[in-house]
Amino acid sequence: MKYAVLGAGRMGSALIRGMIASGFTTGNSITISDKHPDSLKQVASQLGTKAVESNALAVAEADVVFLCVKPNQSLEVVAEVASELKGKLLISIVAGIHASSLLTAAGGGFRVLRTMPNTAVRLRKGIIAIASNPSATDSDLELALRIFSSVGTALEVTESDLDAVTAVSGSGPAFALLMLESLAQGGIEGGLDPEVARKCAAGALAAAAALVTETEETPLALRQEITSPGGTTAAGLEVLADREFPSIVRDAVAAARKRSIELSAKP
Question: What is the CATH number of the domain that holds 193?
Fold first, then answer.
């Protein structure tokens, strides 16, 4: 099977790296296109893929097309390749742009699945939500689940879920990285070597994630296990509660979700 990746930016490149690293496919089965010739050649050289500057040519050679461009470019790009898309499967990773909008922009005649992966797909540790559409078949969905399971954990959701998924899974790593950065800075201010502080902070977040994913306990129950009355963890959690940290995080998720909805409303 041949694949086209329209957009060789961070997410498109991360997806390609993950698919190749997993052994799901090889670089010579993937054709990439991008409006920036220099970055296109660089990515193709690094990953061993084919590269073309024409989106239409990339789509013409493919069975499955990944749409990895910016939201404000997506409808223009699918309209540009409409004739080449006929009868093919388009898998969009674009935030906020509905499947119906993509179909309308290119005049229909092809199948669409929407997905929301996060950047950890390059490490084969991503979370990828997949939303089907009436235009797509059960076989299309099964194929998408296989593709994205090769680069992480693939979850089937409804399209109406994707705005919240975008906020939690897509934007969430950046929120967590800010937490990691702050943890490390706290360690540095406490006298730790910066590299030691960074590793301790990264290990703390990795430990929290592993506890949630590898046990059947809730984050609340796990947090209670860690927290001894009157201990160091309790002292720190009291500060976070006083500063309304949980509310701040929920507000960040709400803001990201709102922005995803706003993107979908734009023409």
Answer: 1.10.3730.10
Sign of CA dihedral 104, 81, 3, 43: negative
71 and 8: one domain?
A: yes
- Alpha-carbon gap, residue 60 to 83, rounded angstroms: 9
What are the tokens at 24? 């799901």
Residue 244 structural domain: 170-264
The pLDDT tens digits of the residues spanning 138-169 come to 999 999 999 999 899 999 999 999 999 999 99
* CB-side neighbour CA atoms (13 Å) of 207: 10
52-75 tens-digit pLDDT: 989 999 999 899 999 999 988 999
Helix (H, G, I), strand (E, B) or coil at 167: helix
Write down the pTM of the prediction. 0.87
Read off the tokens for 182: 């702050």
Cα 147 from Cα 124, distance rounded (Å): 11
| Residue of 62 and 35 predicted with greater confidence | 62
User: Residue type for 229, please?
Assistant: P
Q: Say if residue 50 is exposed, middle or buried (CB neighbours under 10 Å; 0-12, 13-18, 19+).
A: middle
